[in-house]
Design brief:
CATH superfamily of the largest domain: Type I PLP-dependent aspartate aminotransferase-like (Major domain)
Distance between the termini: 35 Å
CATH architecture of the largest domain: 3-Layer(aba) Sandwich
Order of helices and strands: HHHHHEHHEHEHEHEEEHHHEEHEEHH
Bound molecules: pyridoxal-5'-phosphate
CATH topology of the largest domain: Aspartate Aminotransferase, domain 2
Number of domains: 3
Largest sheet: 7 strands, mixed
CATH class of the largest domain: Alpha Beta
């Protein structure tokens, strides 16, 4: 593969996205009419023609999550290395279900996962697999935890148990656990929402008392979920204390670090994750803060035997064990008997190649840069009269101010192509949420966005004088340039 040419093309697309709109303005009807008129699939088209049209659609008709002023939902900008990796994977199409078919690919994944597993402080004989995302990793955690705690679960199912198994988490934990409870047959009522303190971190005293109460009432507590970087506010649960509770009560300690887990490679941030080394299992998404394209999640577990127990399968048609390996050990080589997926893509190459190219230090700098941009955003907002309502070392800022209607400000930001942010509800109050998700976001982007927000807010509140801080900011031309017309 000739990287020079690809690099040029990548740079061209990147700058076109950066100069274009962040938010689309389109209806489903408009897109459907376009597709109807061009694609009846009866006539053939040249690939050039198809690519040009598909790119035009993607450019016009989506939120550009790789834009440096997309301050959104953990969707990252992507590196050239990770894009090249996904292309190579599509080209060679390795089948990773078992080791024998794709030894090189399997070992590259193992190697990459082993590196991160060691960073988290998990024991060397832990097991890890790439997943489609955090959802699959969290589902894996629940299935393996059930398998370990209730030996009859695998053969006889939940109805064989003497009571209702229960999972403890906060309201701020990922809402995918509702679906997981549903899918596994545990039922959504198995989730025990534990109160949070004013920083939206789990109240561990209430965790302990809720577990004790459930035990008295015949429930079967089996798992606690601690989150590193909650979706709404970026909160980090008190991992060490939760680990202690889990150890005392013999419960599975799962850490959902889908977004925040990447902080483990930052010298400045990793101390906020102390306690993660005690986890029974960890979810971490490379397709969030590790800045690779979707889907690239990871599931780590310190109990390889329970993972193999949960996902075991004997089939005659799959190629056998690798040469020179006993039956027992061969199991750990085969992803299809150690994870939910069967046929599987070479998911891990994009992280492997990006890491190899950037190096650990380069990666840490990407993380630290985004953390700095988060701090700058927080300070700039504070300095110009906004109230910060969340508390986290991660680059996620929730804010409001007197007289603000978040939905109106957000609509204005989108309409003027200033930035994409979202609304979050914290303690019942609606606020604005901005998360730095691009390693390309600059100080100038932050100043420009804060300046524009001050202007838009002043304009929206009758009788408010223009905030002097906002008018002194020298806005770059790109601030509200919309590029193509929509
Ligand atoms: C994103 C996220 C998930 C879900 O992960 P997907 O990759 O979207 O499937 C779960 N938990 C947390 C904390 C997340 O941030």
């Amino acid at each position: 593969m000739n990287i020079g040419q690809i690099q040029q093309e990548f740079a061209r697309l990147e700058s076109e996205i950066a100069d274009g709109p962040i938010v689309p303005n389109v209806t489903a009807e408009e897109i459907r009419a376009h597709l109807q008129s061009r694609y009846d699939f009866k006539r053939s088209m040249t690939l050039d023609e198809v690519v040009a049209d598909v790119e035009a659609m993607l450019r016009k008709w989506q939120v550009q999550v790789t834009h440096q002023r997309y301050f959104g939902l953990f969707n990252p900008s992507v590196t050239l290395a990770s894009v090249v990796a996904d292309t190579l994977v599509a080209m060679y199409n390795p089948q990773l279900a078992n080791w024998r078919t794709s030894p090189a690919a399997n070992e590259m994944e193992r190697h990459t996962l082993g590196w991160l597993s060691a960073k988290f402080g998990l024991p060397q004989d832990s097991i890890a697999t790439f997943t489609s995302g955090g959802m699959e990793a969290n589902l894996s955690a629940v299935v393996v935890a059930l398998t370990r705690k209730f030996p009859s679960y695998g053969e006889h199912g939940l109805r064989h148990l003497a009571g209702q198994p229960t999972i403890y988490l906060t309201e701020e934990a990922h809402h995918g656990f509702n679906k997981i409870a549903h899918i596994t047959g545990l039922g959504r009522h198995c989730l025990r929402p534990i109160a949070t303190d004013r920083h939206l971190q789990m109240n561990v005293e209430q965790l302990s008392s809720r577990i004790a109460e459930d035990l008295r009432n015949g429930f079967l507590p089996f798992m606690v979920v601690g989150t590193v970087g909650t979706t709404a506010a970026g909160a980090i649960d008190p991992l060490l204390e939760i680990a202690r509770v889990c150890s005392d009560a013999s419960l599975w300690f799962h850490v959902d670090a889908a977004w925040g887990g990447a902080a483990i490679i930052s010298q400045d941030l990793k101390h906020h994750l102390v306690g993660i080394e005690a986890a029974d299992s960890i979810t971490c998404d490379a397709h969030k803060w590790f800045s690779v394209p979707m889907g690239c999640g990871m599931f780590f577990c310190r109990h390889p035997e329970s993972v193999a127990q949960a996902f075991r399968s004997e089939v005659s048609y799959m190629p056998g064990k690798p040469p020179g390996v006993g039956d027992e050990a061969s199991n750990t080589f085969n992803p299809f008997t150690n994870s939910i997926q069967w046929s599987r893509r070479f998911i891990g190459l994009k992280l492997f190649m990006a890491l190899a190219e950037q190096g650990e230090a380069g990666y840490a700098e990407m993380i630290d840069h985004q953390a700095r941009m988060g701090r700058l955003l927080r300070e700039s907002l504070q300095d110009t009269g906004w109230r910060i309502v969340n508390s986290t070392p991660l680059p996620l800022v929730c804010f409001t101010r007197d007289g603000l209607v978040p939905s109106i400000l957000l609509a204005a930001l989108r309409e003027n192509q200033v930035a994409w942010m979202s609304e979050a509800v914290l303690d019942g109050v609606s606020v604005v949420r901005a998360c730095i998700t691009s390693f390309r976001t600059t100080e100038q982007d932050i100043h420009c966005v804060v300046g524009q927000m001050n202007r838009l807010f002043s304009d929206s509140v009758p009788g408010t004088n223009n905030d002097p801080a906002s008018t002194t900011i020298n806005e770059p031309h790109t601030a509200i340039r919309t590029g193509t017309t929509l």
